[in-house]
């Protein structure tokens, strides 16, 4: 899933990650970081100018007058100076080191990957670790000089935020699972990127769907943002990807589909259907749940007001070839 969700893994140097078998998610994270950091070290760690304030016997940069006056009052023959220094001890490298140190302390990361990461951390001796909770991810900006960090920082965010963290004797530990919300976003991204890459005969997008309004006035209406929209000619399949702990809702031992999910996909389908007007077309919808270990799994097709709405599950606990076959079968069913 990560290989498709993070499309930059297709660049040179990651092919052996894509073909290697991993026993758990932690080893995959460690392997990708080891390859990515190793590749970055060959290009050189990103450095930026950092402001320093230091007491020196000679002038460097500009003199900090309040500090210098304090030195004079204390009868110290030194100057307090402020200067800029080009340093690798910046936020991006601090995030990388913090993430690696957490993985190194995790019991489920194999020794081979730990060895690779430890060797690379020798080049981070001048870089500090930081409190993961203090990182403002939304404030990080990428530009021409640090754009090669984009995928690595995204992966670090998944590790530091997505994996539940706790403290034991003042040290952070990684829990052994990723929370449902972030796995849901990864699940959506994986399906979209899989279809975009592996099914060139169809167009895969995450398009917005306009409201079918009689008078054109849509003030305060929410945006209808699809997860995955597959298009081929006049045929459209809108997929709403759902990653839940429980795929069905139960009340008094009666299992039904999540009502909000069904209302949502029906609304998407009917509004998209109105775009075509009188032209020949076919618009369908699908709720695609990640399969759980529950006894009852949805596998139904409904015909609603002239449109087909189906509910399926995708079993991720399979070899990837079988997962791909499940996804390909959806395309064959709707666009064959």
From TrEMBL:
Name of the protein in question: 5-methylcytosine-specific restriction endonuclease system specificity protein McrC
Superkingdom, natural source: Bacteria
Keyword DNA-binding: no
InterPro entries, sorted: McrC, McrC_bac
Molecular functions (GO terms): endonuclease activity
Xref: PANTHER family: PROTEIN MCRC, TYPE IV METHYL-DIRECTED RESTRICTION ENZYME ECOKMCRBC
Coiled-coil intervals, chain numbering: none
GO biological process assignments: DNA restriction-modification system
Organism: Butyricicoccus porcorum
Pfam families: McrBC
Keywords on record: Endonuclease, Hydrolase, Nuclease
């Amino acid at each position: 899933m990560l290989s498709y969700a993070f499309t930059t893994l297709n660049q040179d140097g990651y092919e052996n990650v894509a073909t290697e078998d991993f026993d758990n998610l932690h080893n995959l994270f460690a392997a990708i970081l080891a390859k990515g950091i190793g590749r970055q070290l060959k290009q050189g760690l990103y450095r930026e100018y950092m402001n320093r304030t230091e007491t020196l016997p000679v002038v460097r940069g500009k003199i900090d007058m309040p500090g210098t006056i304090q030195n004079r009052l204390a009868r110290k023959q030194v100057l307090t100076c402020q200067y800029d220094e080009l340093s690798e001890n910046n936020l991006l490298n601090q995030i990388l080191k913090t993430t690696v140190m957490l993985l190194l302390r995790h019991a489920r990361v194999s020794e081979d990957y730990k060895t690779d990461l430890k060797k690379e951390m020798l080049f981070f001796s001048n870089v500090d670790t930081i409190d993961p909770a203090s990182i403002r991810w939304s404030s990080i900006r990428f530009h021409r000089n640090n754009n090669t960090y984009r995928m690595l920082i995204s992966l670090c965010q998944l590790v530091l935020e997505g994996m539940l963290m706790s403290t034991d004797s003042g040290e952070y530990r990684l829990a052994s699972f990723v929370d449902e919300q972030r796995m849901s976003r990864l699940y959506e991204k994986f399906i979209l990127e899989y279809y975009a890459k592996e099914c060139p005969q169809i167009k895969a997008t995450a398009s917005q769907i306009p409201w079918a309004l009689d008078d054109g006035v849509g003030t305060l209406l929410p945006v209808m943002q699809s997860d995955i929209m597959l298009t081929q000619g006049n045929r459209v399949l809108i997929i709403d990807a759902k990653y839940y702990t429980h795929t069905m809702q139960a009340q008094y031992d009666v299992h039904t589909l999540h009502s909000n999910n069904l209302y949502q996909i029906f609304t998407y389908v009917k509004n998209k259907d109105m775009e075509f007007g009188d032209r020949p077309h076919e618009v369908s919808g699908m709720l695609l749940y990640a399969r759980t270990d529950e006894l009852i799994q949805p596998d139904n097709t409904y015909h609603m007001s002239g449109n087909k709405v189906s509910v399926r599950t995708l079993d991720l606990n399979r070899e990837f070839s079988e997962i791909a076959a499940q996804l390909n079968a959806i395309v064959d069913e709707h666009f064959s």
